[in-house]
């Protein structure tokens, strides 16, 4: 058995460690960037809120700083930076300027907890170590098997030379290129000796192993053989007339009798609502017959159509705010306006920009593929309470009543995905509940399942609206244009709940309100 040199092992280990270090660096940098982005988003939301409610006191994690304040953070902004950030005691502190008429009016400092990376870093290191050990073990095992194989391969070749028709196939669980080549040699020799009828019977037996429809027909339009999948999707028949309802497909089969070449084409079989990718291959050695394979691609086509529809919807939704921003920006650039008009147009541009950013953010959340969901123990009651605390200014503005019943429950789950679920449902309840209305939020546990519900006494939903409420860009009341939103919130809720293995239920009565219930 060939042994690895110590030098090679050291080089591979160093390279592997370098890759691990680079990955850890990238992961930690990505998490830090996410924390910065989250803090900046919060800062932008607070600034927008302060524009409407300048006298509302802020929580301790937010501080308004005078424009005249001079320190390291404000100096960075004065030097041209759009914001400054500090990392201190497990927190990130982001300071952003607040502008008025192009001048810095004040600064807003936002403090938030940094994402803990110890668990993630440890998991990556453990995962890489397992891979390193596994690869080492597999490499050693392969070297051992290669040594054993080399001792037997010559004997196998001599056996094929002496009696090629009696040799069994060499391919086993330990298939390698040499065995595959020897097996191909044996098959080639055997195929030249097999009779015409044996070829035909072998083919007919072979097609039964496939789970998609296959049939063989001849130049006279007779179906000579079908497999079980074909009989299940169509019927057990001996004539091509079975495809009379599918005129285009039948014409395709007839054309192949005159022009027998390999060709693929996709057909829609309307009576059974299915798409099939059809491939016809001539069999000149079997009485000029043709073998037809039919791959069901209905799910792929529907997914592609849904993708195209989603792209069209996103493009339409992006066009509206961009048109408004462009139009009002041109007015500000080319028209002589009063200060009041300038401020009004600028506020519209800011509103549409925020709408555009929200749309892009929600679209990214909705299209993100959670192939591997990181889960850790999360205090759900604390998470919900933090969302409610941040929502209090909006609730007070509409003079609404908030009731909550939150059991102290924790769950091993993905905190950002759960936060998005709770936040979207609570924000929707606030948006669509009229002034002086009431909202009830609860968190309980039943039969080892976590139950979260949000109830409002808004306008309620019709049965048709309930069927479409989770569709992308659908809003139950399009006429209420004053209600902000992207139309993606509930679609994100449904996707996250599904990815986490839960389900969502909606109960609504027109004129009385709606209850969303999440079970995890």
Automatic annotation (TrEMBL):
Keyword Repressor appears in the UniProt entry: no
Location of the Histidine kinase domain: 313-520
UniProt key word Protease: no
UniProt entry keywords in alphabetical sequence: Kinase, Membrane, Phosphoprotein, Transferase, Transmembrane, Transmembrane helix, Two-component regulatory system
One protein family per Pfam: HisKA
Single GO cellular component term: plasma membrane
TM regions (residue ranges): 9-27, 118-140
GO biological process: cellular response to phosphate starvation
PROSITE patterns hit by this protein: HIS_KIN
One Gene Ontology term of the molecular function aspect: phosphoprotein phosphatase activity
Uppermost EC category: transferase
Cell location: Membrane
InterPro entries on file: BphY/WalK/GraS-like, HATPase_C_sf, HATPase_dom, His_kinase_dom, HisK_dim/P_dom, HisK_dim/P_sf, Sig_transdc_His_kin-like_C
Broad class of where this protein is predominantly found: membrane
EC number, UniProt record: 2.7.13.3
Coiled coil: none
Protein name: histidine kinase
Species assigned in the record: Lactococcus hircilactis
């Amino acid at each position: 058995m060939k042994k690895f040199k110590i030098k090679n092992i050291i080089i591979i280990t160093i390279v592997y460690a370098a890759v691990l270090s680079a990955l850890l660096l990238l992961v930690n940098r990505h998490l830090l960037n996410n924390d910065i982005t989250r803090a900046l988003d919060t800062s932008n939301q607070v600034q927008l809120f302060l524009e409407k409610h300048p006298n509302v006191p802020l929580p301790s994690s937010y501080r308004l700083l005078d424009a005249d304040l001079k320190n390291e953070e404000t100096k960075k902004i004065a030097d041209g930076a759009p914001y400054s950030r500090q990392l201190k005691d497990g927190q990130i502190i982001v300071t952003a300027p607040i502008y008025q008429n192009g001048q810095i009016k004040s600064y807003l400092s936002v403090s938030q907890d940094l994402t803990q990376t110890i668990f993630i870093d440890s998991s990556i290191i453990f995962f890489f170590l397992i891979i390193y050990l596994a690869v080492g073990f597999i490499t050693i095992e392969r070297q051992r098997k290669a040594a054993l194989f080399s001792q037997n391969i010559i004997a196998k070749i001599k056996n094929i030379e002496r009696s090629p028709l009696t040799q069994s196939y060499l391919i086993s669980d330990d298939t390698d290129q040499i065995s595959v080549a020897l097996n191909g040699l044996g098959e080639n020799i055997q195929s030249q000796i097999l009779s015409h009828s044996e070829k035909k019977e072998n083919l007919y037996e072979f097609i039964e192993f496939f789970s998609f429809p296959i049939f063989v027909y001849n130049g006279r339009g007779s179906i000579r053989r079908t497999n079980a999948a074909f009989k299940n999707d169509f019927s057990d028949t001996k004539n091509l007339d079975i495809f009379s309802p599918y005129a285009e497909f039948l014409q395709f089969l007839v054309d192949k009798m005159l022009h027998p070449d390999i060709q693929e084409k996709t057909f829609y079989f309307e009576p059974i609502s299915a798409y099939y990718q059809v491939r016809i291959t001539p069999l000149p050695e079997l009485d000029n017959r043709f073998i037809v394979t039919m791959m069901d691609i209905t799910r792929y086509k529907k997914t592609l159509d849904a993708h195209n529809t989603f792209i069209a919807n996103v493009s339409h939704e992006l066009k509206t705010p961009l048109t408004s921003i462009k139009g009002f920006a041109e007015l500000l650039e080319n028209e002589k306006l009063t200060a009041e008009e300038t401020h009004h147009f600028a506020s519209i541009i800011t509103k549409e920009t925020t709408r555009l950013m929200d749309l892009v953010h929600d679209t990214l959340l909705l299209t993100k593929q959670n192939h591997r969901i990181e889960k850790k123990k999360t205090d759900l009651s604390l998470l919900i309470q933090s969302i409610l605390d941040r929502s209090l200014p909006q609730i007070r503005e509409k003079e609404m009543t908030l009731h909550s019943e939150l059991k102290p429950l924790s769950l091993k789950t993905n905190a950002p995905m759960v936060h998005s679920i709770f936040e979207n449902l609570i924000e929707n309840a606030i948006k669509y509940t009229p002034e002086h209305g009431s909202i009830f939020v609860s968190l309980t546990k039943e039969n080892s399942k976590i139950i979260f519900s949000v109830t409002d006494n808004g306008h309620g939903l019709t049965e048709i609206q309930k069927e479409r409420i989770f569709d992308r860009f659908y809003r139950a009341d399009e006429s209420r244009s004053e209600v902000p939103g992207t139309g993606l919130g509930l679609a994100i809720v449904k996707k996250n709940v599904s990815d986490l293995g839960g389900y969502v239920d909606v109960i609504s009565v027109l004129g009385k309100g709606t209850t969303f219930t999440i079970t995890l």
